[in-house]
């Protein structure tokens, strides 16, 4: 018998027929019509070259042949194994698992989400459970997710490829920060004063002197004085502490720098940004990635 020609549905029907010893009862059990199951029984008889079930002498029900009786136990075991294979899910135990999770995230996401995430991971004290944060590249993210070289990307909506599944972690607003003792003082900002200050811009793409704030100011017919561009948020405190520059940052990042920097509300209304976690659909049911996403849900937006 060629295994490629075996119809597994026929084997499921055979198990029900042997158990019920009655075509009508077995058909009801399988949610099939009696003619449909009778047709399957005919195919089964041809497959095994045996009647399998014959009419009982009493005229009620059927009796399994010796071949059918011999098939009962191995058939049950084989179908049980197949059902277990299909229905079971791989479990992930963070206390014993050996795995490296790779997350693409800029330092903003690492500071706001990554640090509390690492604190949660560390509670399992498992040296074989590791997390690597890698710098995101918008041009490579889609391929990296598909190939599995990264498990998650955490970033703005612009960083989420169209192929990915995504969940919003939180919405963010912007504030302006300056060093303690800045000559501007602690008074509220107005738009003229804000634009006249010397600004540091964090450009994750590298080297740009125009960002979301500048696009918004253009709509207002205004322009601020951006004099320095850096790629990392973590460079901002050192730059501002040694100058009279200012910087506009997500409020959660600014809160991390609170001991060294003062924060102020912007002198204009501006839509904030949102931070997302994204993953490839092929790993949506990956037990490890499911666990990691669960941790993110617990720590999202934690300060």
Give a written overview of the molecule.
By secondary structure, the protein is α/β, with parallel strands linked by helices. It is built from 11 helices and 12 strands. It has helices at 8-20, 23-30, 34-48, 66-87, 107-122, 141-147, 191-196, 212-219, 236-241, 251-256, 287-299; strands spanning 53-55, 62-64, 99-105, 129-134, 152-155, 165-172, 174-179, 198-202, 225-230, 246-250, 261-265, 273-279. It has a 5-stranded mixed β-sheet with strand order 4-3-5-12-6, covered by helices on one side. Helix 2 crosses helix 3 (34-48). The longest helix is centred in the N-terminal third of the chain and has 22 residues, at 66-87. It is elongated, with a radius of gyration of 32 Å. The model has no long low-confidence stretch (mean pLDDT 89).
């Amino acid at each position: 018998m060629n295994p490629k020609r075996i119809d597994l549905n026929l084997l499921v029907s055979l198990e029900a027929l042997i158990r019920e010893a009655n075509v009508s009862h077995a058909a009801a059990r399988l949610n099939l019509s009696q003619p449909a199951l009778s047709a399957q029984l005919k195919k089964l008889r041809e497959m095994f070259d045996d009647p399998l079930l014959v009419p009982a002498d009493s005229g009620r029900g059927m009796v399994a042949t010796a071949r059918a009786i011999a098939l009962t136990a191995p058939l049950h075991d084989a179908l049980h194994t197949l059902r277990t294979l299909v229905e079971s899910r791989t479990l992930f135990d963070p206390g014993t698992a050996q795995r490296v999770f790779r997350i693409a995230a800029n330092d903003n996401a690492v500071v706001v989400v990554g640090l509390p995430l690492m604190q949660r991971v560390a509670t399992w004290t498992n040296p074989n459970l590791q997390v690597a944060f890698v710098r995101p590249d918008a041009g490579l993210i889609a391929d990296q997710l598909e190939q599995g070289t990264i498990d998650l990307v955490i970033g703005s909506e612009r960083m989420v490829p169209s192929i990915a599944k995504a969940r919003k972690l939180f919405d963010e607003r912007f504030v302006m920060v300056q060093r303690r003792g800045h000559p501007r003082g602690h008074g509220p900002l107005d738009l003229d004063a804000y634009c006249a200050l010397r600004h540091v811009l964090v450009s994750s793409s590298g080297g740009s002197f125009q960002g979301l704030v500048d696009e918004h100011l253009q709509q207002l017919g205004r322009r601020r004085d951006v004099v320095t561009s850096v790629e990392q948020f973590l460079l901002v405190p050192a730059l501002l502490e040694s100058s009279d520059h200012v910087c506009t940052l997500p409020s959660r990042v600014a809160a991390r720098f609170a001991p060294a920097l003062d924060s102020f509300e912007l002198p204009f209304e501006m839509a904030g940004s949102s931070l997302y976690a994204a993953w490839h659909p092929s790993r949506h049911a990956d037990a490890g990635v499911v666990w990691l996403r669960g941790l993110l849900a617990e720590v999202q937006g934690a300060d």
